[in-house]
Structure formats: C-alpha cells, structure tokens
Amino acid sequence: MPIEVRPATAERFGDLEMVLGPKAPEAPACWCLSYRLSSGDLRFKNGTSRRAVMRDLCSEPVPPGVLAYRGDEVVGWCSVSPRSSYRRLVHSRVIPHVDDRPVWSVTCFVVRPGFRRQGVAVELLEGAVAFARDQGATILEGYPADTAGKRLNGAFAYTGTRSLFERVGFAVVANTTSTTGGVPRVVMRRDIE
After folding, report:
1. Domain limits at 126?
2. What is the pLDDT along the chain (193 residues), one digit of tens a residue?
3. Which parts of the chain are beta strand (E)?
4. CB–CB of 156/180 below 8 Å?
5. Are strands 65-70 and 73-82 parallel, antiparallel or unpaired?
6. 153 contact partners, CB below 8 Å, separation of at least 6
7. For residue 31, is it left (φ>0), alpha (ψ between -120 and 50) or beta?
8. Which of 63, 94, 121, 163 has the smallest CB count inside 10 Å?
C-alpha cells in the first residue's frame, strides 16, 4: 500500500500523538521539541507541557512537520519548518549556518515500530520537500549522520542519514562538529524552487 504524506495539522494531532507521545502522559518525552525550545526553559521539562506546546504548533497556520500514512494508519513523522523556528539550531555552535539565505530545516524523523526499514523515511523526506515548497521555501536543509554506509543505532536515527538525504536529491554543503551516536553529522541542502 502506498504512503501518503500530510501536514501535521491540529485535526491530525491524535495521529502525531501516536507517533511521538509516551504511553504515560506525564513521562518525559522529547515531542520533537529539542531544537525548538531553549535548553534552559524549565517550563517544558515534563511530557504534559511539551505535548501542549506541540498541540499549539499544530494549530499554527504553518504546521511543524508532516505525517506519513499507509492507508488510514499513521506510520511516521518528520519535523520540517523554517530554520528560524528552531531556537537551538539558530544559536548552535556545532551546526553551522552556511550562509544568510533563508532555509527550511528537517531536524527529525520518527517511524513507528513495525514500519521501519520499509522506505517510510524516504517518503517522509520527499513529503517534507513538497510541504516546504508549498509553503514558499526555496532551500531545504538537513543535518544527518554521515554513517559511511554503516548501520546507525536506532536510538540515534532520528537525524536521518546522508544516504537517505542523497536519495532525495540533497548534497553535502558543510561539515559540522556535531555527532549522533558517535557518528559525524553534515549539513545537506536541496534547492526546491
């Protein structure tokens, strides 16, 4: 069955919660906000607070990312927004700004168990490209792990891999001093005009 990628709107928040939410609502969970919130903001340390922030983001005119569906079942998530909306990315000392051109950024992938290693991440990234283009973006950027063809531990796969981004037409434009799971990350871009 083909994958369809749709914006993570308020109407689809329940689906996003299935992908990102912990089983216990109070449990600490990222909710894909680590780049969006400042590291010192203690208001957003628990799962309930983070859930509320993400719910609000899904209600904005430009949703915070896209969801992948196989039929009616949600199977994955990709965070894609203007780089300027990711506070920690804007001020990062380890992931450089390549230039002053306005870019959109892909920062996270989550594919639900049972659907991994089936091409969902490729579909999510292609959907992120289409979504960003529809929102007026002209450049999309990602910060994947450069695994040199080796398998990345699943706990660190949220960044995506260089080979994933290359399959969708991205090219390396800069190195970073950031790592994930001990693997270096690179800045990759694709023009989407």
Report:
1. 3-191
2. 899 999 999 999 999 999 998 888 777 788 899 899 877 765 566 678 888 999 999 999 999 999 999 999 999 999 999 999 999 999 999 999 999 999 999 999 999 999 898 999 999 999 999 999 999 999 999 999 999 878 877 778 899 999 999 999 999 999 999 999 889 999 999 999 8
3. 3-7, 65-70, 73-82, 104-111, 139-142, 171-180, 183-191
4. yes
5. antiparallel
6. 181
7. left
8. 94
| Residue 79 structure tokens | 């965070």
DSSP state of 132: H
CATH number of the domain at 40, please: 3.40.630.30
Tokens coding 35: 């780049």
Say if CB 35 and CB 88 are below 8 A apart: yes
- Polymer length of the chain: 193
Would you put residue 114 in left (φ > 0), alpha (ψ -120 to 50) or beta? Answer: left
